[in-house]
Design goal:
The chain is of the alpha/beta class and 192 residues long. The protein contains five helices and 14 strands. Helix 2 runs parallel beside helix 3.
Length: 192
Amino acid sequence: MFIEPRMEKKMGHRSGWIEVICGSMFSGKTEELIRRLNRAAIAKQQVEIFKPSTDVRYHEEDIVSHNRQRIPSTPVDKARDILELAGVCEVVGIDEAQFFDADLPAVVNQLANDGKRVILAGLDMDSQGRPFGPMPTLMALAEYVTKVHAICIQCGEVAHYSYRKVPNEEQVLLGEKDSYEARCRACFLAES
């Protein structure tokens, strides 16, 4: 279970940090992101939330989990846009971090250095089982990394792979249960 750290003030400056929530599709990454952001809002912290503008699966603006939990967000075209839009907030939430450009780690570092709590969620591996986009760097930079798991649709074991059911060689293919399913290592390798 993740225990949320306290924001500490040191000589008039708030200490920032980075939290990464990662795992396969259907593992609850976005649900956990929404939970943490809602708790920050309940604590009356000013929160700004972002997602890549290319992710329009459930809604053009809101972040929506597979089980239809939602939270308002601002879609952005590139990671650098977040620096301008975050303003004076205390907490920054970012969903689908794997889809952002290579500037995201520098942006997130800057936000944390400015005293913000930054919470990101994203796939750590693509459908081929390879590290995905800026996620490996973000995980290395983060003070807190939470890896969540799904249940393998084939055998019921713990799953951490996103198996693509449709033929497509592109690394990025937006989809849901019609295109992907969670798989354990053995079931993923059996189909690869």
